[in-house]
Each structure stands twice: as C-alpha cells, then as structure tokens.
Amino acid sequence: MSDTTELEAAAFRRLLQHLNVERSDVQNIDLMILAGFCRNCLSDWYREAAEAAGQPMSKDEARERVYGMPFAEWKAKFQQDATPEQLAAFAQAQRRHG
Questions:
Q1: Distance of CA 77 to the CA centre of its chain
Q2: pLDDT confidence tier of residue 95, bands split at 50, 70 and 90
Q3: How many DSSP H helices and E strands does the chain contain?
C-alpha cells in the first residue's frame, strides 16, 4: 500500500468519525443540500470500490461500515424527519445540480 493510499484511508476514517460521532446532528438531507452527497452516498461509493476490488458487498454491509453501526440503529438514534424547509431546499439544490 502506498503512502498516498494510507493517508487517504486515514482521512476517510476521520471524515466518518466527524460525520457519525462529532456531527451526528447533521442530517443527510442537509449534506445533500449543501454538498450534493451524504452518508448514504459514501456507503454506495464504498460498496462500488469493494466490488471493483473483487469483494462483493451488500448495501447494508456498506452502510454499516460507513455509519459505524447498522443503518436502522443509526436512523433510530439520529435521523429526524425532514422539515418542509429542508425538502424545499433539497428540491432547489437538485435543480441547481441536476
């Protein structure tokens, strides 16, 4: 493994720590509005990378790796219903980025 790969892996682990421990209050919809990706996107990218490396992985397995726990558990602990304002902002962001 190259130094670059190790550094990238460390940065990814830090991103997950930040999103799931330090900022579990930040909702996925807010990430989507502001950045165009969320924790679910990260888990999809993780699964795609695993499969490209010949390591099949289910959606649930990838989400557990990204969320640090089963998705249903994370959702029950931290996910809130989207507000009408968030839904409107999400729709507007989709039009800008679409």
A1: 16
A2: confident
A3: 6, 0
Amino acid letter, residue 35? A
68, 24 Cβ separation under 8 angstroms: no
Q: Could you read off the pLDDT of 3-56 as tens digits, one per residue?
A: 999 999 999 999 999 999 999 999 999 999 999 999 999 999 999 999 999 999
Spatial CB neighbours of 46, under 8 Å, sequence gap ≥ 6: 57, 62, 65, 66
Candidate CATH numbers 3.40.190.10, 3.40.50.2300, 1.10.3340.10, 2.40.160.10; the one for domain 3-97: 1.10.3340.10
For the chain, the residue count is: 98
Centre a 10 Å sphere on the Cβ of residue 26 and count the other Cβ atoms it contains: 16
> Domain extents for the chain?
3-97
Name the token pair of 34.
């502001």
